[in-house]
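Worked example 2:
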Amino acid sequence: MHIPDGRDCPYYAANYHRRATPQETCHLLEGTPDAVRWTSNLCNQCTVPDIRRANACPKMVLHLHIGKRPLRFWESERIFVHATCTYTQKTVKNPYVGCGHCHTPIVFVVAEEVKE
């Protein structure tokens, strides 16, 4: 579903019925204490749609946390994303690329030209 700024996020859900207050949720935050503080305005700075567009590995699990950066009391809250791999059981350093163990890289072998 499209988040308020227009990007497509697989974890965002909005329930708009006629004459009812809209109910918006983020499925990545369900069951966490940060789910109470979440608003759809936080989706504007969220990198999850970009990460899922760049890397759709089913073994990579994304985790969200809402907070502020240290020593930046003047900034508003934001979403922090980190990823883990269920295959290697390790933290993924760059979620845009992945852990590098789940998928083997493609190697192209070019044969020599045959002389006639």
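The mean pLDDT is 85. Residues 48-54 form the longest helix (7 residues).
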